[in-house]
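hiii, so i know i said id send this last week but things got crazy w the move. better late than never?? heres the sequnce for the chain we talked about at the cafe, plus the structure i predicted for it. fair warning i was half asleep when i ran it
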Amino acid sequence: MATASKPFPAWLVTLALAALGLIGAEVVFYLSYNYVPTQISEGTLWVVTPDRGSPINLYESYRIFFVHLPSAYSTALCCGICLVGGVMWLLSRKPKWEALTVASAEVGMLTGAIVLLTGTLWADYAWGSGRIGSGWNWEPRLTTMLILWLAFAALLVLRKAMDQPRQRSALTAVYGILLGPLYPLVSKAIEIGQTSHPKSFSDLLTAPEIAVTKNVASLALTVAFMGLVALRYQMGRLGQNIEQERAA
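okay and structure toks below
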């Protein structure tokens, strides 16, 4: 008589992602400070001042790029997961999809905050006066990113205001679906009225060391953030099971 195979424990996936992410993050920080050069060459066009003045070099400040860009990728991925989770909940009404949507929104709020913070600090040096907040100029890319971050926060706040579990789940699903298209809007916003944010980082990536570190950072930090999504998902599912037992 054949025995049923045991399901693969989800916590092992969470543990593996967390371990790989932490190791990868350490490698990224090492490479970003000890492997990549300070600048590619004298006079390289890395960014243009908002008033279309002379091109400036970013020197040491561009090292924040290796946290800024992977955080942006992770934010985009969280938007996609929220979209999938919302659609799947509407189709199946299974609590696991609500837990996935919430976990992705929580981590998306974190990664979005990192994008805003690192981008602002970078801009303060690159085209601001060096004073905190001087680089924020409300151009479309910055503004739409802020709107996306507020949308993540709004989903989590509105959930807390809903007393009925069914209504809360439906709101989470619909809101998760609405979050999906927001990151493409952020990505395209640079074409609407770009002033200072670089349209691409191709100048930086002409240095092999920078290209390698960028690829490692994109993979490693994204894995780390997805490990955090998996952890929050497991915690969400545990909370749902506790609520069901209390209601029984």
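btw Helices lie at 10-34, 65-92, 95-126, 140-160, 165-179, 182-188, 190-193, 208-247. thought thatd interest u
miss u guys!!
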